[in-house]
């Protein structure tokens, strides 16, 4: 691991190179899925959180674990269940009978990378305890505020097919996630490769960190310095506003969604080795950042309208600045 590397000067070239090393490391475990990995890196670099939504067994937990192992950071996993309480995530005061005092025992949220596995299995009260802490970057416990460590990344997984005994995240909670990633099935050859990868042992066991905390923080700082021309910002806002007017949508993109798309476009540009955003960065990130924020009207839901297609049509319609 390159602890001696120069992190103070995180040039776009160096950023692309460091993330390339991270990508190569993850690809030792996760086969295919290069686009999903890139979206994950955008969220990581822009201090956002990730909602991994897909059917069972396509590598959601494996991907989150592989990322945590590739970063030299503390990692916690919480398996969400219906009886999980907010204090199981945030922590609680413990009474000490010897001297009659209370001391605070930090919950698993006090880590750098938190895997909230199967988030839709916990009660709405517990979900909101996590999501509020996630967006405010602090946990409020018994009236006291505790800042979360830096960096802090939540990867939540959700399984869309199990409706029985689950609590789907409400729109306001979905809006807090920067990106939604779907992994999908691997292609034929890749699936065969996966079988041999794991014949002896799981490749996850061999993974070691390739990016230090300092490098990640420098990358996150660099994202914020990526320039966005006014014409590109206006283009982005036009896309968001179009979603609010589309007759097929009951709910469009919020200004929070616009902000997260702005930051995502900056990170996307940096990953491409640039210190300025192009309209293409906005376009590349639009469906991944926006689609989970949209709510279809019941009519268009029954008609089988796809949110991704709605965004793609909007991208087609809104003039691209030159
Ligand atoms: N694209 C892939 N590349 C490498 N391994 C994969 C891929 N897809 C699935 N696997 C393997 O399939 C197994 C199951 O993956 P995992 O447990 O991460 O699934 P999951 O999506 O979390 O499922 P669940 O929703 O049931 O929790 C793991 O051994 C994982 O390595
Ligand atoms: Mg899993």
Number of helices: 13
Domain tally: 2
CATH topology name of the largest domain = Rossmann fold
The CATH homologous superfamily of the largest domain corresponds to P-loop containing nucleotide triphosphate hydrolases
Q: Indicate the low-confidence ranges by residue numbers.
A: 1-7
Major β-sheet profile: 5 strands, parallel
| C-alpha termini separation | 42 Å
Bound molecules: adenosine-5'-triphosphate, magnesium ion
Counted beta strands: 11
Regarding quaternary structure, what we see is: single chain
Radius of gyration: 20 Å
Helix content estimate: 40-55%
- CATH architecture classification name of the largest domain: 3-Layer(aba) Sandwich
Report mean pLDDT, rounded to a whole number.
91
Widest sheet: strand ordering: 2-5-8-1-9
The CATH class of the largest domain turns out to be: Alpha Beta
């Amino acid at each position: 691991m390159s602890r001696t590397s120069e992190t103070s000067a995180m040039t776009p070239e160096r950023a692309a190179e460091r993330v390339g090393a991270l990508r190569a490391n993850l690809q030792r475990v996760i086969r295919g899925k290069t686009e999903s990995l890139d979206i994950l890196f955008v969220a990581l670099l822009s201090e956002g959180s990730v909602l991994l939504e897909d059917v069972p067994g396509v590598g959601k937990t494996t991907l989150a674990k592989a990322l945590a192992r590739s970063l030299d950071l503390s990692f916690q996993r919480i398996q969400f269940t219906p009886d999980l309480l907010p204090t199981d995530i945030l922590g609680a005061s413990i009474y000490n009978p010897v001297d009659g005092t209370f001391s605070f025992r930090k919950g698993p949220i006090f880590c750098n990378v938190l895997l909230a596995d199967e988030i839709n299995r916990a009660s709405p009260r517990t979900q909101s305890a996590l999501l509020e802490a996630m967006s405010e970057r602090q946990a409020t416990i018994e009236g006291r505020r505790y800042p979360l460590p830096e960096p802090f990344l939540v990867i939540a997984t959700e399984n869309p097919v199990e409706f029985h005994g689950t609590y789907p995240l409400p729109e306001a909670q979905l809006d807090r996630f920067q990106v939604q990633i779907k992994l999908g099935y691997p292609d034929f050859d890749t699936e065969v490769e996966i079988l041999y990868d794991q014949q002896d042992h799981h490749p996850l066991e061999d993974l070691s960190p390739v990016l230090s905390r300092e490098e990640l923080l420098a990358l996150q700082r660099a994202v914020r310095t990526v320039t966005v021309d006014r014409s590109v910002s206006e283009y982005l806002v036009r896309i968001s506003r179009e979603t609010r007017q589309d007759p097929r949508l009951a709910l469009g993109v919020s200004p929070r969604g616009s902000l997260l798309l702005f930051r995502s476009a900056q990170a996307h540009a940096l990953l491409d080795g640039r210190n300025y955003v192009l309209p293409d960065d906005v376009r590349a990130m639009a469906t991944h950042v926006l689609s989970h924020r949209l709510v279809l009207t019941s009519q268009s839901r029954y008609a089988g309208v796809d949110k991704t297609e709605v965004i793609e049509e909007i991208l087609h319609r809104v003039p691209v600045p030159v």
